[in-house]
Amino acid sequence: MNYINLNGKITTPEEARMPIDNGSFRYGYGLFETMLVQDGAINLIQYHWDRLFAGMRQLYFEIPVLFTEKYLEAEVLKTVQKNKPDALCRVRLQVFATGGGLYSSEKNSPGFLIECFPLDPSLLLLNENGLTLGVAKALYKSVDSLSNLKSCNALVYAIAAKQAKENKWNDALICNTSGNIIESTIANLFWIKNGQVYTPPLSDGCIAGVMRKYLLEKIPVIEKVLHMQSLTDADEVFLTNSVRRIKWVQTINNIKYTNKDIKKIYTHLF
């Protein structure tokens, strides 16, 4: 796939031009959605639009009248069709502040960039080999009104991912400034004890994940602050995001987990 969509214009990455004063580049002023497109349709589409537009309003974007859910859906699918993928791909839609060199710039209208990538269908399946995770060191995510946004401020996640690679983990878990475990670098976190499913609350600073919200609407889940001791005592652990769906975790800090209930949840939902 070699084509991107920059503000409604289909072009190649080599030909694309972005002003150097755009807010995303200078300040991480923007949001993004990572979406699964399957057989020409965006999975969980309304969940994505609800989160994106709520986040844009929270970040004081001036949303043009024509900048609607239907418009963005059409632009996403136009980009997918141009790239001629198979029946499955991952799409990254990024919305960014378009200009102005200062924080207080009067210009706060959104620009957007759409990229799409081929996806192996096996990525959607429940993994047979469990993931190995560790906890990121000396990295703590703050808890504030922006913590739940899927924003372009991703430095904590990027460095945690480097630690995961360095330690040969599949992913790294992130703690907030209180030391509570809240998520991984690319996913929300769930654990199971005695058949009950738990996940950290949004008030602890995790991303308001699309797949997280979907699970909370479909199965009984208790939101609970997560300390390492709870993970040590858990029977099963899994990660979720909108593209990979559910991935079971086999090992965290040499602690082993099973996946009996996770298999039932995956079969029930997908």
A few lines on this structure:
By secondary structure, the chain is α+β, with helices and mostly antiparallel strands. The chain has seven helices and 15 strands. The strands form two sheets. Strands 7, 8, 9, 10, 11, 12, 13, 14 and 15 form a nine-stranded mixed sheet that branches. Strands 2-1-6-5-3-4 form a six-stranded antiparallel sheet.
Tags for this model:
about 270 residues, alpha+beta, D-amino Acid Aminotransferase, Chain A, domain 1, D-amino Acid Aminotransferase, Chain A, domain 2, 9-stranded mixed sheet, 6-stranded antiparallel sheet, 7 helices, 15 strands, globular
Please give a structural write-up:
- By secondary structure, the chain is of the alpha+beta class.
- The chain has 2 domains: 120 residues, 2-Layer Sandwich (D-amino Acid Aminotransferase, Chain A, domain 1), CATH 3.30.470; 139 residues, D-amino Acid Aminotransferase, Chain A, domain 2.
- Helices cover 26% and strands 32% of the residues.
- The strands form 2 sheets. Strands 7, 8, 9, 10, 11, 12, 13, 14 and 15 form a 9-stranded mixed beta sheet that branches. Strands 2-1-6-5-3-4 form a 6-stranded antiparallel beta sheet.
- The radius of gyration is 19 Å and the shape is globular.
- The mean pLDDT is 94.
Compute the number of helices: 7
Fold-level CATH name of the largest domain:
D-amino Acid Aminotransferase, Chain A, domain 2
Q: What do we call the CATH homologous superfamily of the largest domain?
A: D-amino Acid Aminotransferase, subunit A, domain 2
Poorly predicted runs of 5 or more residues: none
How far is it from the N-terminal to the C-terminal residue, by CA?
27 Å
What is the helix/strand order?
EEHEEHHEEEHEEEEHEHEEEH
**The biggest beta sheet, please?**
9 strands, mixed
Gyration radius, to the nearest Å?
A: 19 Å
Task: Indicate the structural class.
Answer: alpha+beta
Question: How does CATH name the architecture of the largest domain?
Answer: Alpha-Beta Barrel
